[in-house]
Amino acid sequence: MFDTTGFWKDIFIFILVLVVVYTLLKTFTLKYFKNKDRAKTVGLNIFLVLGILYLFYRIYRVIYDNFPDFATMFMMTNIINQTLQVSVLALATTGIVLIFKTSATTNFAQGMIATFGAFLSAKMIQYFTLNYTDMTVTTMVFLAMIGGAITAFLFGVFVDAVIIRNSKDKSPIGKQMITMGLVLVLAGAMPLIFGKILMPIPKMSYEPNIAFKLFGIDLFITVHAYYALIITVVLLVILFSMLRFTKWGLGVRATASNELVAGMMGVNTKVITSMSWAIAGLLGAVAAVMLTPNATNVTVALMTPTQVNAFMAAILGSFSSFLGPLVAAILIPVLTGLLSLVVPLWQNAVVYLIILAVVLVKPMGLFGKKIAKKV
Amino acid sequence: MMICRTEVSKDRKARIKQITNHPYFGFFIITFLMLIVQLLRVAGVPVSNTLIRAFGITMIYIIIALGFSILLGYAGLASLGTAGFVGIGTYILGYFTKNLEASIFIVILVSILGAIVIGLIVGFISLRIEGMYLAIITLGLSEILNEVFKNAVSITNGTNGLGLDSQLIIFKNLIFVNHNTIFIFTAIIMFIMMILTLNLIKSPTGRALLAMRNSTSAAQAMGVSILKYRLMAFIVSTVYAMLGGVIYMSYISFSIPTTWSLAFSLNILAAVIVGGSQSIYGIVLGTFMIFGLNLGVFQQFDFFKENPAISVMFNGLLIILVIMFYPGGLIRLVTTSYYKLKKALAKLKMKWRNYRYGSDN
User: Fold this and answer.
1) What pLDDT is stored for residue B64 in this prediction?
2) pLDDT greater than 80 at residue A30
3) B163: which strand partners?
4) How many folded domains does chain B comprise?
5) Among A181, A188, A312, beta carbon nearest to B320
6) What CATH number is associated with residue B97?
7) What pLDDT, in 10s, does the model give residues A106-145?
8) How confident is the model at residue B166 (pLDDT cuts 50, 70, 90)?
9) Is the confidence at residue A234, as pLDDT, over 90?
């Protein structure tokens, strides 16, 4: 699409310069700092942020060289177009992190539980369109979304009560494999339970796009993405305030730091874990219903790319915090969208490679803290 | 006369026992059982094509699962990159035969070298990122490889898939090989791989890997180099996977990116876990449960043909049940029930003897 000569060369040179400067600084100036570990991590963070900013700048330059007049608009439009992806990814990632905090396992079945909800939503929409012809699209999708979310909520409780609670004493990798088995079970069960879905889930609204101004640039956003953003923000604000201010949130934080001690201190860890599985399912189902209009139909593999991206976001932002994965969930779709302009078709591979490089430098993620382990 | 005859029979019995107790005997029996289907066909018994194909694919999956078991069962590293590595193997054979017209031996050499390089890279990653995170990172790596398979059209022919017309090049001669020949070759390679795996896990290397699996810190304290053995485990498993890919391509003659997705890695994982990740017989059993039953038995019935999802569900249920209730895999269930049966039979025999001849006291 664009002339990208020199793009990769510049980036490699920049990364090399960063590495050399960092090594020089580390060897010669580290002894002047009192808290050496802290200085090291702060330095690394600064250099990583510099690298990511340079990547954005270089993409901007490539667009600018080709379209000098519209470069900023081009970039902003591209970022705004990713609103829906960002919302979906943010919800999915938060669900995965919530489960990791309480059950100490990476839930591979998150996407499948979400798809379970989406299947029920699609069935509900089929029923509504056949029986209530005067219903508007928006109400229909909202009702279906609530139905799907409640189903996924109950299913999350069911999974926790039947499987996860009974495999508490298994190793983390064993628990992880149980969730992989759950993926296969659900992938096999859903076509049997729901049959073929004939009707796709429609968008939340087909009204004309909303136009708005940002930094003096005319932009527009589809109503569907706008609604998705609002729902995501509302859900996440409710969830985070619950985590911060309610007794349940305190319980989650206590369970996350040490499940055994939390149980001894009177926290009902069973309820905490099953609630977090349920809420993760709910978030995933809402995300799946919002995503489906972009895919053609509800299928078993609907959430698989989102699931992989959500894992990547959680790894990039660190599993140990809630805010880090959220930042990564915004960063990944935006980067993918921008890179699709520069290296069409290869954008996903490049983004995964960048994440791999970042994680190799900081194994605990961008916002993670190193936790000292007793041997 | 009488004494002489018993001595001969005793001698023969001891010799037979020597053969049956040999560690390779079981592998030989498994290989022979696999080959029987093919031999029956040669003898003129009508065996359906799908059944033979099912056996062939199962053997290829056994090779891949053996490599994966060294990683999971012995080194304790959970990886989801298997699909990508097998995919690379298939594309190496496809590209080298079709475009470069290279001999199969060069292909095998190149795939082993490539496997060593990739194994080194993943091994170094595994030194930084451990435990649960490693599965996610290798999943990401597999996704990258899948993107490469999709987009590097000049090598992989993109999403249309790469076909070979069942041709191979051996010493510059283009040969149209028969699938039956490759079936027999696959069986022999499986036999060799089993022997290699057994020797590897009984050697000091295997013991070091086991020590590392149980506790990295304790292993390091005993002088086991984590760097060396992690890299080694990844290299071995990648070599097995790539060889599996090369054999897969020569047997099926077709490779398409959608095959090398997360589902493939999960199924290999399922096979290793269900059978028992620390036993070669367990892996054979597990691969049969996951792939062989579906391909060879279920596909013969119309009910399963119409609902292919049931076998997927069955696999998932098996994984969950095995991890929750039989952590050693189904092979441990088989061996324990065998010993229990033996004990019960001995008891019964004793009881009968007491009844027949009267008890000792």
Assistant:
1) 94
2) no
3) B254
4) 1
5) A181
6) 1.10.3470
7) 888 888 999 998 888 888 888 888 888 777 888 888 888 8
8) low
9) yes
- Cβ–Cβ gap A352/B144 under 8 Å: yes
Using pLDDT thresholds of 50, 70 and 90, give the confidence band for residue B3.
Answer: low
* CB distance A337 to A78 below 8 Å: yes
Which residues in chain B touch residue A105, judged by CB atoms under 8 angstroms apart? 132
Contacts A353 to B, Cβ<8 Å: 144
Q: CB–CB of B318/B290 below 8 Å?
A: yes
Cα separations in angstroms, A159 against A185, A283, A293, B320, B322? 12, 16, 28, 12, 17
Q: How far apart are CA B285 and CA B190, in angstroms?
A: 14
Query: Is the distance from CB of B92 to CB of B224 less than 8 angstroms?
Result: no
CB B321 within 8 A of CB A162: no
From CA A140, how far away is CA B318, in angstroms rounded?
39
Report the SS3 class of residue A208: coil
> Do A224 and A292 form a contact (C-beta atoms < 8 A)?
no
Is the residue at A265 inside a domain?
Answer: yes
Structure token digits, residue B134: 């490693």
Looking at the domain assignment, is residue B354 inside a domain?
no
One DSSP character per residue, B92-141 reads HHHHHHHTS---HHHHHHHHHHHHHHHHHHHHHHHHHS-THHHHHHHHHH
In a domain, B339, yes or no: no
How far does Cα B19 stand from its chain's mean position?
Answer: 24
Determine, yes or no, domain membership for A166. Answer: yes
Host H or E run for residue A221: strand A217-221
Whether A348 is in a domain gets the answer no
CB contact under 8 A, A311 and B327: no
Range of the structural domain that residue A165 is part of: 82-302
Residue A302 CA to residue A308 CA, distance in Å, equals: 12
Mutate to test the interface with B, among A160, A173, A184 (most CBs of B within 10 A): A184
- Domain of B205 in residue numbering reads as 29-328
Distance of alpha carbon A309 from alpha carbon B140, whole angstroms? 9
In chain A, DSSP finds a helix count (H) and a strand count (E) of 14, 2
Q: Does residue A331 contact residue A351 with C-beta atoms inside 8 Å? A: no
Average pLDDT over residues A277-294: 89
Please indicate, yes or no, if residue A26 is contained in any of the structural domains: no
Report phi then psi at A292, rounded to 5: -55, -40
Query: Which residues of chain B form beta strands (DSSP E)?
Result: 162-163, 167-170, 173-176, 254-255
Q: Specify if B286 maps to a domain.
A: yes
pLDDT of residue A236: 93
Report the residue count for chain B: 361
Does some domain include residue B116? yes
DSSP helix/strand/coil, B169:
strand
Give the pair of three-digit tokens for residue A225. Answer: 């993405």
Residue B245 has pLDDT above 80, yes or no: yes
For the four alpha carbons of B252, B258, B261 and B264, in that order, the dihedral sign comes to: negative
- Confidence (pTM): 0.87
Q: How many CB atoms lie within 10 A of CB B222?
A: 11
For chain B, count helices (H), then strands (E).
16, 4
| H or E stretch covering B193 | helix B179-202
Residue B1 pLDDT greater than 60, yes or no: no
Answer with the residue of higher pLDDT: A231 or B297.
Answer: A231
Average pLDDT over residues B54-72: 91
Strand A217-221 and strand A210-214: the pairing is antiparallel
- Contact call for A177 and B319, based on CB within 8 A: yes
Nearest CB partner across the interface for B319, out of A172, A181, A348: A181
DSSP 8-state class, residue A35: S
Give dist(CA A77, CA A221) in Å, integer. 9
Among candidates A185, A349, A352 on the partner chain, residue whose Cβ is nearest the Cβ of B317: A185
Alpha-carbon gap, residue B67 to B85, rounded angstroms: 11
Look at chain A and report how many structural domains it folds into. Answer: 1
